[in-house]
Amino acid sequence: MSNRDYANRRPASKGRKKSTGGRRQPAPAPRRFPFVLSLVTLGLVGGFGYFLWSINDSADKVETQPEVQAAKPKVVKKDPNALPPKPKEEWTYQEELENKQVEVDIPENTTPTRPYQMQCGSFRQESQANEMKAVIAFQGLEAQVRKVSGSNGTWYKVVLGPYERKRLAEKHRHILQRGGLNGCQIWFWEGS
């Protein structure tokens, strides 16, 4: 087996092919305009002509109807330097608004609102709760550590509040989230 050089190989010649046998290929038949297409075109042109004729006929009928002209009022020549009379005021809203009494019903808040608190952690050891209180203090907020005794032992809760409105508690929670504390929850105030 010999090594062949495919990279430097010359492409095959693209010249005319030699004819074999003297047979000629029949020339393609000239294209003829289809008979059906010409009938459709003729029908569309005829339909368009009929449409234009019907529009013209209806326009003639409209013009043949007698026109009724309204009587023109007589124009009275006036002095060109004279001003027209001052129009009479038709609006009465100014007098109505000056004498209008507005009644506003303000509902009385009979139910006392419960303040909100935000709890950021609950720990078994007081030192961990104080660490979180320090982290909150670095954010510019003041937290409290509460000792709570329950059925499963003593817990130290880190809480902020009380807040009159939940909106202020949400604002402080966003401040803490920017500082890296994401676990704070807002609840109703439990007291003390």
UniProtKB/TrEMBL annotation:
Gene3D superfamilies: Sporulation related repeat. SUPFAM superfamilies: Sporulation related repeat. Residues 11-21 have a biased composition (Basic residues). The chain crosses the membrane at residues 33-53. Keywords: Membrane, Transmembrane, Transmembrane helix. Pfam families: SPOR (PF05036). Residues 1-30 are annotated as: Disordered. GO terms for molecular function: peptidoglycan binding. InterPro entries: Cell_div_SPOR-domain (IPR052521), SPOR-like_dom (IPR007730), SPOR-like_sf (IPR036680). The keyword Metal-binding does not apply. Residues 110-190 form the SPOR domain. This is Sporulation domain protein. It comes from Shewanella loihica (strain ATCC BAA-1088 / PV-4).
